[in-house]
Write a structure and sequence with these properties.
This protein is mainly alpha-helical. Helices cover about 55% and strands about 5% of the residues. A two-stranded antiparallel ribbon has the order 1-2.
Length: about 170
């Protein structure tokens, strides 16, 4: 399946600034790149190619169904926000120029130390894990609502849960 160079954005830069940790003064041009990278590297493997493409097409055509809107609003958007927060840490700290990579410094700005940066990164990483698991759990519990999900083409494909229950099996930790 061919992936467009620029898939439909699952979240806008303005929404990231409104509900995430990203400050309003961050350039939208940087955030648009962050959004695309997060969609492809974090969200697409969880949704699978077929569902990812359906959501992207549905956003472009403004024809997401009610279940897809719930998926986006309650599960994908929260994941996008925290994953974009994390990706923006480096994207906003460094400037790639024609002769080097530099750190942008403002006279009224003091960058955090490496250990403070790591602490923030670890905190956000925990939130990403929670949101990823929440999304996966929702999709597994509601796989019949998203037929493209069962036909996921990506290597991280999640399958629908087995509806038959094992009887008489006990698991013990030793």
């Amino acid at each position: 399946t061919k992936i467009n160079i620029m898939d439909s954005a699952f979240i806008t830069a303005d929404k990231l600034k409104l509900i995430g940790l990203i400050n309003g003064n961050v350039e939208d041009s940087i955030l648009r790149v962050v959004i695309q990278r997060v969609q492809r590297s974090v969200v697409r493997p969880l949704l699978g190619t077929s569902l990812y493409n359906r959501i992207s097409t549905g956003i472009s055509a403004a024809d997401l169904n009610a279940n897809e809107i719930i998926l986006m609003d309650d599960y994908v958007t929260p994941l996008m926000v925290v994953a974009c927060d994390r990706a923006s840490i480096d994207a906003t700290n460094y400037q790639i120029r024609n002769k080097s990579v530099s750190v942008g410094v403002d006279k009224d700005f003091k960058a955090v130390s490496e250990s403070e940066n790591l602490r923030l990164d670890n905190s956000i990483r925990e939130s990403i894990t929670i949101e990823q698991n929440t999304l996966i759990d929702y999709l597994l519990d509601n796989c019949l609502l998203y037929p493209q999900y069962d036909n996921a083409e990506c290597s991280y494909e999640m399958k629908a849960p087995n509806t038959t229950k094992a009887k008489g099996i006990n698991f013990y930790l030793t």
